Amino acid sequence: MTRVAVLYGGISAEREVSLSSGGQVIAALRARGYDVQPVEVGEDLAAVLAALDPKPDAVFNALHGRFGEDGVIQGVLDWLNIPYTHSGVRASALAMDKEASRAVFAAAGLSIARGRVIEIEEFFDTDPMPLPYVIKPLNEGSSVGVSILREGDNRRAEIARSWAYGKKALVEEFVPGRELTVGVMGDRALTVTEIASKHAFYDYESKYAEGGSRHVLPAQLHPAAHAQALDLALAAHRALGCRGATRADFRYDDTKGEPGRLVLLEVNTQPGMTPTSLLPEQAQFCGFDFPALCAWMVENAACRA
């Protein structure tokens, strides 16, 4: 029997999300007959290393956010020579760093929003680009710290004062229209989901609160735009050097009619596996129920040392 250690929890701002993902994964893998060892990760790395001795056959990485999907834990697992799910060190680090991933996407000729990295101190004094625009941390996931500023918005100084995500930030043009996402499993883009949120954008609450958003699957959009979204998601996955499952997020500006402008926002190398998460929904739509999706990830686990 394959013994799988599931890493979940972690020490990032997304700990609660990871605990939810991990709990779902543990139950699903046990239902598929795996010998599952839950490993709740905290600040004590030595405790994590002890839990991985003796070595499991594979690690299911259900961690989210910093230290879980930015290449750090991936490097530890490579050092230990333990196969693990999802992407390796380089792809994880690139995807988590929005400045680096934007450079990769631009070099690959993929459509991204106009934007630049600023020192947060600049934000006190002036708008870094014409309104409306989006400000976001460089190294956080799940829309943590993201704000949209529109005409007449006076929150700039308040955001700068309370900024808790390092000395820099990414500022991008606000792209109107619809929120789309595409899951990728290996060499296959799954389908396109439209995310209809009650909020100004697909923020943390929209992602994880019950009823926070409505998922339209498959998205109702122009066939050319649908095909382009699938192609872009797979191209972004490959440009970063990702493995296993990822999810690419887009804005789709159809305000002037279809087909509209499709803009790649980011690639998530550790998509959520919670009851409201998007990748499991898309996998189900394509014939993989949740336990089958988790099993696929384990069977495609690898060590990238």
Molecular structure report:
The protein has helices at residues 15-31, 45-51, 72-80, 89-96, 98-107, 156-162, 204-208, 223-240, 278-285, 290-299; strands spanning 3-9, 35-41, 58-61, 115-119, 133-136, 147-149, 168-173, 178-185, 188-197, 213-216, 245-253, 261-268. The chain is α+β, with helices and mostly antiparallel strands and 305 residues long. It folds into three domains: 3-85, Rossmann fold; 95-111 and 176-269, D-amino Acid Aminotransferase, Chain A, domain 1 (2-Layer Sandwich), CATH 3.30.470.20; 115-173, Dna Ligase, domain 1, CATH 3.30.1490.20. The strands form three sheets. It has a five-stranded antiparallel β-sheet with strand order 10-9-8-11-12. A four-stranded antiparallel β-sheet has the order 4-7-5-6, with no helix packed on it. The longest helix has 18 residues, at 223-240. The protein is globular. 44% of the residues are buried.
What key attributes describe this structure?
305 residues; alpha+beta; Rossmann fold; D-amino Acid Aminotransferase, Chain A, domain 1; Dna Ligase, domain 1; 3 domains; five-stranded antiparallel sheet; four-stranded antiparallel sheet; 10 helices; globular
